[in-house]
Every structure is written in structure tokens, then in C-alpha cells.
Amino acid sequence: MYYKLLNRTGEKVPEIGLGTWGIGGATSADLTADEAFVAAIRNAIEAGMKLIDTAEMYGAGHTEELVGRAIKGYKRDEVFIISKVWHSHLRRDDLLDSAKKSVQRLGTYMDLFLVHWPNPSVPLQETIRAMEEVAEQGLTRYIGVSNFSAELLDEARSFTSKYEIVVDEVKYSITDRAAEKDVLPYCEKNSIALIAYTPIEHGKIGEGPIGDAIQKVAKKYSKTPVQVALNWLTYHEPVIAIPKASKKEHIIEDAGASDWRLSSEDFEFLTRARWIFCKTRKFGLVHKASCLRLSWS
Ligand SMILES: NC(=O)c1ccc[n+]([C@@H]2O[C@H](COP(=O)([O-])OP(=O)(O)OC[C@H]3O[C@@H](n4cnc5c(N)ncnc54)[C@H](OP(=O)(O)O)[C@@H]3O)[C@@H](O)[C@H]2O)c1
Question: Which of 50, 110, 170, 266 sits CB 3.0–4.6 Å from 262 for a disulfide?
């Protein structure tokens, strides 16, 4: 597994981590498959995906409990745990309470704590100052944001005093390139990591819009389309990808997207496999509206 420097912190993290949405439930807790999910997280750690992305919202907190169970037995500094505070908990007292509960469920401190989604009804300055308090109290080592535009990220950074915002976690895949408009250039310019979520479009990346191009490159490297799509993402210096996988064969495949690199020619070939994605903004969330295929050569 290749590691990347988490910008100016000097911290090194795996370029492919494990997403956990759906592990232990979605919006409510699912207690029916705990052993299998704990085993899945351990399989991912063994395969090298030692960065684990979770959130207080996932499984209504149960996902964090399963992550906590899974990492027992590993040296704490061997794994890098990310959790997130939900947008309804962004007032100072709520945020501190959420952070404490996340730490309780995980059974350990967080390495990185993110604001899951912005909330325009709470002053951003209050939220960012509270994030710094969470770090100050030793509940997390680093702080960051998720689903922030470059503009909002810039505003958030202006409110920090002691801790830097080290990450923006946003949707980014080879077929959904909205992040390239402003977030990726901003992260590149300011040495901020971009954590790419839904990086394999729920496993359908090889069947998607530029499936032909991905499959052609996959064949050339004797890799799978998922591995090529993830490698294309991590080719970008600030990008870390967090596919969610619970099946062992998926975990092994996803981890196998690292330890090698596409050539610059093949990276460019895939980048030119062009699509135009039209985006609409509805209720503050980004929705894919439609897309139009153009030719690639
Ligand atoms: N910050 C945010 O707002 C936000 C939003 C969405 C997601 N996220 C994070 O990002 C993570 C990943 O995103 P996601 O879960 O939306 O989508 P994803 O990672 O693109 O897709 C996950 C799905 O793909 C399947 N899969 C995994 N590896 C595969 C492979 N090699 N071949 C075929 N199928 C494969 C998984 O199946 P199995 O589980 O059956 O193996 C699962 O159903 C989430 O789990 C979460 O941690 C964050």
C-alpha cells in the first residue's frame, strides 16, 4: 500500500482507505451481522486499508462501535480513524457532545474529525472553533471538513487559530469530476488532502460512462476496472480514496488498486475520456442531473 503525506502534518496515511457506510446499518443500527462486519474491517486492515472512514450518523452510531471492536488488537498508531459530526450537531455544545460520544463508541481517540456537511443555519466560525476545542481536548488529532466547496473551505480555514483543516472529503470518481472545478485545485494549491468518497460509483465504475476506456486500460495492466478507477484517483497528489467494501474479494481487489501507478499516458488517456456532467444543486446537496457522452480517442 502506498502512503501519502497528509499535507503539512507530516502524517503518512494509506492512499486507499475503507469506507463504512452501510456497515452496521444505514440510518439506523443493524445488529444482525456484527461478527461479519468486524471481520470485514479486520480483513481491510490486513489488506493494508488502515485508514477507516466512519461517522456518528452511520448506523446511528453502531458503525463506530464496530470499528472500535475491529481495531482492538492492533497498535493504535497502525490505524488511522476518521469520524464525522452530523450537520444538526454543529453548535458548540452539541459538537463537543458528539465528539465525546464518537470517542466513547470507538473506544479510542479519533485521528481525524470532520464536519460531515455544512449547515448554513449555524455560524461557521462557531463550528470551526468547536472543532479546535475537540482537538484541544485530545479527542481528535486533526480536524477537517466534508462536502465543503472551495469557497466554504477557504472561509472555514480563516476561522482556525491553532489547528489546520487538513482534509476536505467530497464525492469524486473518474466519472463524477465535479470536484475538479474548484475543490481539487484549491486542495492542490493549499496542500490539503482530498478524500474521495463513492470513488467506484458503488462498484459500477467499469459499466459506467467511460467503461470502454477503463476496461481497455485494465486489460493492459492486468488489473480490474475498479482498480484502474481507484488508481486514476490516487494519481492526483492530494487524493486518498475510500471505497466501502465488506465482501472479502472486494476488499482484496480494492486494496490492489495501490502499490502501482498508471503511466502518465494512460492517466491522460482516461482523463480525456470525456464526459460532461451537468449538476444541479438542490437543498444544498449535489445531484447528478444528466450527462452527455463525447468521443474519446
Ligand atoms: N462524507 C460524505 O458525505 C460521504 C458520503 C458518501 C460516502 N462517504 C464515505 O465514502 C465511502 C465510500 O462510498 P460509498 O459507500 O458511497 O460507495 P463506493 O465505495 O463507491 O461503493 C461501495 C459499494 O461497492 C461495492 N464494492 C466495493 N468494492 C468493489 C469491487 N471491487 N467490485 C465491485 N463492487 C465493489 C461494495 O460492496 P460490498 O460492501 O458488498 O463489498 C459496496 O456495495 C462510504 O462508505 C463512506 O465511508 C462519505
Answer: 266
Q: Whose CA is nearest to atom 32 of ligand 1?
A: 203
What is the Å distance from ligand 1's center to 205 Cα? 11
Which amino acid would we find at residue 240? I
59-87 burial, b at 16+ Cβ within 10 Å, e below that, comes to: bebbbbbbbbbbbeeeeeeebbbbbbbbb
Q: Whose CA is nearest to atom 48 of ligand 1?
A: 197
| Ligand 1 surroundings by CB, under 6 angstroms | 19-21, 53, 116, 146-147, 169, 197-203, 226, 242-247, 250, 253-254
* Residue of minimum CA distance from atom 16 in ligand 1: 198
pLDDT for position 283: 41
Nearest to 57 by CA among 32, 80, 89, 81: 89
Copy the grid coordinates of residue 126. 462557531
* Global pTM exceeds 0.85: yes
Render pLDDT for 72-102 as a digit per residue (tens, 0 to 9).
999 999 999 999 999 999 999 999 999 999 9
Domains of the chain: 3-266 (3.20.20.100)
